[in-house]
Amino acid sequence: MTDLLENAPAEADDRRRRRRPRWGLRILGVLLGMLFLVVALAAAFLLFLNQKVESNIRHEALLPTPSAAADGTAPGTAAEVLASKGLNVLLIGSDARPGDTASRSDVMVLAHIPEDRSKVYLVHFPRDLWMSIPGHGQAKLNAAYAYGGAPLLVQTLQDKLRIRIDHVAKTDFNGFAGMVDAVGGITVYAEEASTGQGNGGPVVIKQGWNDLNGEQALSFVRERYELSEGDISRGRRQQAFIKALMLKVISPETITNPLKIAEFTDAATKNLVVDEGLTVSFMREEALSLRNVRSGDIVFITAPFTGFGWSSDGQSIDIVDEPGMASLGDAIRQDRLGDYTNRVSVIP
Q: What is the pTM of this model?
């Protein structure tokens, strides 16, 4: 009996030791189950986003036909266009309003992404630049979109800069407002004060920093009549808007919030039209290739012009700096915009 009592603690210890691995396995099983659930939820979320993007985005023929890639007026133009380095994507913002049967392009920004994917250069082309529109003579640049849509606008810029534009993405201004609201508003810097009009009444923009919702941001990027340099000043506002939105999108409060990511993805693609070759998988791969780009690597440039003037038919125009435009085209085509920005003044 004494032996049994003496052996009891040892046997109990043995039983506890035998049970411990089972509890460890159970805990490990729970953890693995939780991990599987997280992975499954993440996969389902990514699948949802992918399906949302696929269903929202529309594909259209936004690029000119190969025969119109360059007008051939300059020796070697076509070959130079084909040999352009880096990736060039034309971003178009249309000012179309409900009921419009035709519209002009209010925002024309060429995104140049170098081959090493180290930076993103955003070149703003003022809508009033007086340029040669193929088949239509001299006119304001945004008239190209009104005359022949995105393909004619692309052809006009390719002919002027002697570059290749690889892809086109366009949206209307309602898309801008939706993106801003999806991330909870933006904080943007205004060089000048203005008072615009929104659906809810006047939109007052003060000089300095402004916290804006979607409707206010829309008024901010549309205003030009109250600004000192009209279309040029508006272009700087559009660039400030793009940067403010980009910074908000990549901020921790957005990228760690699945609901905001889903809402922004929906808003960004709901009114988006891209060329037929710009697939969702390509956009995803490009976004991944730019994962190391920071706000300081996003460089804004305004296409060069020498001043303001009047056309022969009385239109107020921006006069193109022809040597400057040729230099800009060379820098884009040769993937040397870093050298170009060192020689000219750019928006920080």
A: 0.78
Contacts by residues 336-342 (CB-CB < 8 Å, ≥ 24 positions apart): 337/112, 337/114, 337/119, 337/121, 337/299, 337/301, 338/114, 338/119, 340/301, 341/121, 341/299, 341/301
Q: Are strands 137-140 and 130-133 parallel, antiparallel or unpaired?
A: antiparallel
Judge contact between 182 and 230, C-beta under 8 A.
Answer: no
Q: Which region, left, alpha or beta, applies to residue 162 given φ > 0 means left and ψ of -120 to 50 means alpha? A: left
What angle do helix axes 173-182 and 258-270 make, rounded to 10 degrees? 180
Handedness of CA 235, 290, 164, 84 (dihedral sign): positive
Query: Any idea which residue has 């400030």 for tokens?
Result: 240
| Cβ-Cβ contacts under 8 Å for 346 (sequence gap 6 or more) | 299, 300, 301, 302
Packed helices 280-289 and 2-56: angle between N→C axes, nearest 10 degrees: 120
Instruction: Give Rg (Cα) of the chain.
Output: 27
Query: Is the CB of residue 44 less than 8 Å from the CB of residue 258?
Result: no
CA angle 302/307/311 to nearest 5° reads 115
Question: Best-predicted range by mean pLDDT among 65-69, 133-137, 194-198, 259-263?
Answer: 133-137
Mean pLDDT of the chain: 80
Query: Within 13 Å of residue 139, how many CA atoms lie on the same side as its CB?
Result: 17
Distant-in-sequence, close-in-space partners of 288: CB < 8 Å, separation ≥ 6: none
Locate tokens 């600004």: which residue? 227
**What proportion of the chain, given as a percentage, has pLDDT over 70?**
76
Q: 10 Å Cβ neighbour count for 5?
A: 8
200 neighbors 213 (Cβ within 8 angstroms) = no
Rounded to an integer, what is the distance from CA 236 to the centroid of its chain? 16
